[in-house]
Amino acid sequence: MESVLQFLPLIAKGAWLTVLLSLTSVSLAIVFGFFGAAMKLSNSAVLRGLGTFYTTLIRGVPDLVMMLLVFYGGQILINHLVESSGLVERFEIPKFFAGSFAIGFIFGSYMTEAFRGAYLSISKGQIEAAKAFGMRPSVWLKEIVWPQFLPLVLPGFTNNWLVLMKTTALVSIIGLQDLTYLALQAGRTTREPFVFLLVAFLIYLLLTIISDFGLRSVERHYKRY
Fold it and tell me: Which domain holds residue 154?
């Protein structure tokens, strides 16, 4: 117990980084998801093909492999570009950016399917009627689609968010000092790895319970209408 109290500020720092990484990643995932859903719902065969390729690619590659490709492969690619430009000798991708971008890119594909499915669940007749009345796209999207889209997409979004938050533990493999990384380091230092992994387990569980309760409350609120 004394060792846990000694390393508690360090563990708290890692937990905060995990929360920040999760929020950054889910923000990127939402952006990728909206673009991916728009491509897959497009009338253009090229855009639909790109959207399908994106979701198929992510489903076929393990998350850890994708993260390592973004971190190390992106590092090599950018350094080739900057070296050929002659501006700087070497550029290092920040680990936080690499981790959040990789997770956001991965979960963007899952958000794509959640957004697309929610949009397709809305009656097309309502949208066609809005167009027949001469409503601008910005109007019928805001007044007709969005109020129905949100409660439909929230269950899938909640599930993706909970999985995403646990997936952030993978960033420890690239040396980002998140909750998992610092818990492992504290365990090695004190020779009590199980104790600190149990602390990390309880913190992840607490974050999951809080997130699930909050998002379920939002879902119930919108379903009332």
Answer: 2-223
Give the span between the Cα atoms of 188 and 190, in whole angstroms: 6
Query: CA-CA distance, 91 to 50, in Å (whole number)?
Result: 30
pLDDT of residue 86: 63
Cβ–Cβ < 8 Å for 127, 145: yes
> Closest Cα to residue 19, out of 201, 195, 204?
204
Nearest Cα to 22, choosing from 103, 95, 97?
Answer: 103
**Residue 54 near residue 36 (C-beta atoms within 8 A):** yes
| Rg of the chain, C-alpha, whole Å | 21
The three-class DSSP label of residue 43 is coil
In this structure, are residues 106 and 58 in contact, taking their beta carbons and an 8 Å threshold? yes
Asked if pLDDT for residue 16 goes beyond 80, the answer is yes
Domain count, the chain: 1
- Quick one: pLDDT at residue 28? 95
**pLDDT tens digits, residue range 60-75?**
888 888 888 877 777 7
Report angle CA 199, 204, 210 to the nearest 5 degrees.
Answer: 125
The alpha helices in 41-178, defined as continuous H runs, are 45-60, 63-68, 74-85, 95-120, 124-132, 137-140, 146-167
First-to-last alpha carbon distance for the chain, in angstroms, is: 49
Where residue 53 sits, what CATH number does that domain have?
Answer: 1.10.3720.10
pTM for this prediction: 0.87
| Residues shown for the chain | 225
